[in-house]
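step 4 of 6: structure.
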Amino acid sequence: MKRFGTIIALIIMANLTLFSGVASADPWWDGNSKSSASAIEAVITLPSSELTMYSGLVAGWVSTGGGISAWAQTGWVIVYGYAPWSYTEYQFSGGSHELDYKSQLSYGDASEYEVRYDDGYWKTYIDDAFQDGWSGGGLPTPPCQMLAYAEVQGSSSNELWAHFSDVWYYNPTYGWYLLDQANWRQDYPYYVAYQYYYNYYTLGN
Amino acid sequence: MKLPIIFTAIIVICGIILGIATQGANASEAGGGVNVQPNTQIDSGPQNIVDQLTVELRDAGLPIQSVRTVSFSEVTPPVVLEFTFGSASLTGDLVPGDIININTIGRRVNLAQREGLNVGGVGYQIVDAKGTTLARGIQALKSHVKLPSDFDQPSNLDDDAVNSLVRASTSIAGFNIDAIQVSRDKFGLRGVTIQVDTMDPPWFMGQVNIFVPKLRGEIDALNRSQGAQISYYRLTVTDVDGGSILEYIYDPLLKRESSWQAESVGEPWYPSPPQNSGSQ
């Protein structure tokens, strides 16, 4: 029953989309995206206390998207049985992948995560500090789809709670803007409660 | 007016010195030595550390073609040690050995901070046989590579005992564990390599997102409860014909995992964007 009051208020204030149906396949994604940009950043807050989990992981991240097999990403992750950690991650086409855990976090922590294309590299930043950068490997050419999602793996009974606030994207011509599209992704049984396109909660169970 | 003669003499002497230096560098390259390109504007710590770790990596079989320091303002100090190495790729995609090389270089450079290496990041450039760059990367070094608290006390387990414990922990139905090797690096840190054959690749592919986190949990438990002090482990999974299915490395010291998996392997165990990123 985490932050129950907040959630109720959001339901009243905002457009809460609930829909019925069978659970989609593992994994489950929940969040918003920008169809074309060269960077995305978001403050992503961890739940205030431990989530109920049965297996797999729960994560909140920003990432390149576009449905291709190569991508760059940063955020936080709670692996079943472990404390939350911030991380950066990439995958190249052909199946090469690295995940680098950066700092152990506490429940309730909020950090700003960013993926940005700059000087030929997709770079990751946590609280404005450079972490990693990658080039080539089949990574997308900007501008491309950029995602700010929560993700659940392992069990649809895993509890999800993540707050995305101040989600910005970068237009190479015009600069930084708050996320201004409603490209909601809500894989049942998880859903989004939002105040604005750039300020939303990903929730479930 | 003897001034022009003096200037000419200085230019000639500089030219001779430059020529000798260039010849030396070329000889080093031709002889297959370490082609480190020092940048005198950047203090990356003692040059012999860079030379030594490059020789070590080459001796370990890494196809390093060159090493150089690159100025990069987003790390502290603003210097990246960049390695260029060859790939056996014929398709443009990295091959399993490439990701292992990336991991090995990253770990070794992070550990070299203990020896006095003073750079803010490690970089790599992977080129194929034609000289085409396949991928590049830069990673900020972890400024204080500390041993986990599980490593505070000396381990009471010898390598054979660790071998037995790992074998017992990874004996999961459906796998033939071909070999487990326990070794120590120059820092005395223990590493484990596990070679597994799967008789049933489709079954494994469906289980990989369960098996890999389970293995990590087992190794972490061995470190926590048994004092195994495994600072690095590598899992290689092949089919019965020796075809690569999975290469997986986890480094509890740097908190980093690297993997290569065949395209046909099932759902990943790590956070990842959907292949279909459209809105629903």
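step 5 of 6: annotate
 - Confidence is low (pLDDT under 50) at residues 1-5, 7-35 of chain B.
 - Chain B is about 35% helix and 25% strand.
step 6 of 6: archive
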